Amino acid sequence: MPKKRTEVADIDRSMYDFRYEEKDFERVDAGLTPEIVEEISSRKDEPQWMLDFRLKSLETYHRMATPDWGPSIAGLDMDNIVTYVKPNTDQKSDWESLPDDVKNTFDRLGIPQAERAYLAGVGAQYDSELVYHSVQESAAQMGIVYSGIEEALHEPEWEKLIHEKFMTLIPPTDHKFAALHGAVWSGGSFVYVPKGTRLDFPLQSYFRLNAKGAGQFEHTLIIVEDDADLHFIEGCSAPKYNVANLHAGAVELFIGKGAHLRYSTIENWSKNMYNLNTKRARCDEGGSVEWISGSFGSHVGYLYPMSILAGRKSRCTFTGITFAGQGQNLDTGCKVVLAAPETSAAIETKSISKGGGVSTFRSSVVATPNATDSAASVSCQSLMLDDVSRSDTIPAMDVRCKKVDIGHEATIGRIGDDTIFYLMSRGISEEEARTMIVNGFADPVSKELPLEYAVEMNNLIKLEMEGAIG
């Protein structure tokens, strides 16, 4: 008789762990030098100001200390990381024109089907470059611009706007890996939504890192003008290697007066990935940003999307879920700055840990002296599926205004035997009961995701369970 398992089975990553050999790909040397930065800039034929920005960012990177307050990143050696890998294709506007290996990758991930079903535009990045980009004519006729950021950089009208906005929300001096991003960034998206324009269907970018021992450093810049509305979806994945890979992208979101942006992300990197991503939004008067975030992969993760509520009655919501399995240490959460009167923030997170995985929720809420009549609520719930996992909550509240309402609540628990017994008494098997509890725990987040990502998330946490757990 086969032995019963006593722990939750790991996530089945067969959908993501396929990879292709690098045939005719181009790589820069591993490491970080001014010569490498200059080569990346030269390949892209960038304006002089961008090269100057890169070189100054590199100086900042070498000057700054490596973070030591979170999970250890001692296994990440930048001398062994290749910062630029160009796939064997230029950017295309139809899937069939891509090389078979690249096309097959995105076919297996379901991106072309999603575009045909309900997306207004898609950008797909493979390693360091966008390989596919398309936007529906109806969206373009509305004046919406959706392109690769490097492509926009070569258009005089948009170069001026990019020069004005690029890495102003996330300056290279912010932290060491923001400086790294400023030096070697490559690929990413540029979105401009004109005043009063409301797009009924989402735009999506998907980032795939196929290369071994490499980094991906895409930059996403989105500008939603006054009274406009946009839903943007971001997906990420990579196959597993036995060496470290790095993701250090950046996302900058500018939301105008009365505008709204919903930003949905599923990050499903492999377990050799160091995910050191930085995301930040700024909302003007009456503007709002919604973050929907799922973190399932990577060996180590540092991820804290930040909302700067700069205008009166601006607001943000953050809904997130993190799954930390064996060999994973995921430090996630969010940051909010209440910088104007009558602003509001609502944060709800869920985390699941198993197999010795470590999940840490870290939040920062700052109420400035200008935050009169503002409010923020933080709720985080953690579920441990065995007795070898760990979950921590580290909230920070910096309140500098007397007339605000700030609250935080946290719960950490395990699946109770009484709950399992109750469900089993109703004719449900033990395995089904445990699965129902986990899925129910995650449901408030999954229902906020777009359909394809809700299905993906449910597949990721559909755990086979047999026998007792802790």
UniProtKB/TrEMBL annotation:
Q: Name one GO biological process term.
A: iron-sulfur cluster assembly
Q: Where is the SUF system FeS cluster assembly SufBD core domain?
A: 207-441
Q: Which InterPro entries match?
A: Fe-S_cluster_assembly_SufBD (IPR055346), SUF_FeS_clus_asmbl_SufB (IPR010231), SUF_FeS_clus_asmbl_SufBD_core (IPR000825), SUF_FeS_clus_asmbl_SufBD_sf (IPR037284)
**Which species?**
Slackia exigua (strain ATCC 700122 / DSM 15923 / CIP 105133 / JCM 11022 / KCTC 5966 / S-7)
Family, as annotated: Belongs to the iron-sulfur cluster assembly SufBD family.
Source domain of life: Bacteria
Q: What is this protein called?
A: FeS assembly protein SufB
- What broad taxonomic lineage does this protein's source fall under? Bacteria, Bacillati, Actinomycetota, Coriobacteriia, Eggerthellales
Task: Tell me which Pfam families the record gives.
Answer: SUFBD_core
